[in-house]
Amino acid sequence: MSAAESSSSAEAEREALRALTFQRLHPKAYLERFLAENARPDGREPGEWRDISVNVGSISTADGSALVRLGATTIVCGVKAEIAEPELDSPEDGFLVPNLDLPAICSPKFRPGPPTDEAQVLSDRLHEVLVSSGAIPTKSLCIQPGKAVWTLYIDATCINYDGNVFDATLVAMMAALKNTRLPKATYDEETGRTLCTRKEQGPLQINRLPLSMTFGIFDSVHLLADPASFEEPLLDTTFTVTVDENGGLISVVQLGLAPQDVLPRCIAASKARGVELAQRIYGSI
Question: Which fold has domain 52-284?
Fold first, then answer.
């Protein structure tokens, strides 16, 4: 390497270090400078989404599984089916038990120890979406009314956190459920036991395929789609719009205040992206 090249390389390293230092000390000003040029720190435009990829069936010990990457955010999800007794007031309804784990290994923002409040809140929201959407009818999980039903434990773990973990986890959970195969189960009235055979397996009854799209408002002006981890703590308001594979609206969650015209824009963008994304993701599973 020549002296000129060496000097140029050293200057580039110093410039990168200065940029990184400015980003850490003044994150809001750092983001403002990018948005002034209609860009974001990761190279996207304000309304641009990150690439998403889905792989299913990678966990051989699970009844269904999926690995999802949304940008650098990575989620692995496994479904485990167990037989349980139904509730007395719902003798034909099985159970969906989604859970999201945000371990310390996925990001410096999380610490070792019991589940964080954020993980619990997100798990509750995921459960609400799965139940309210009617994605999997709980009655389809019935083996024998009042005696035996399926409980589906849908456990997702974040391997790498780079923002918008809710959207990525919902895709991972639905892809894993679509990949799930349950053994044929029959209830023996005489013995009071449920017998299963893995020689006969069948898919779950899935009526809808919910997808969520999250947006954030920065500095009361800029609407950012699919916020990254650097952007999330700087946002004034977030919207999460959940739609099905046909663009049907399932739910809207808004945290913070926003101008009245923003929500309709988010819903319209979510419906368009939801239809396109469902065909691309779920069509091949």
Answer: Ribosomal Protein S5; domain 2 (3.30.230)
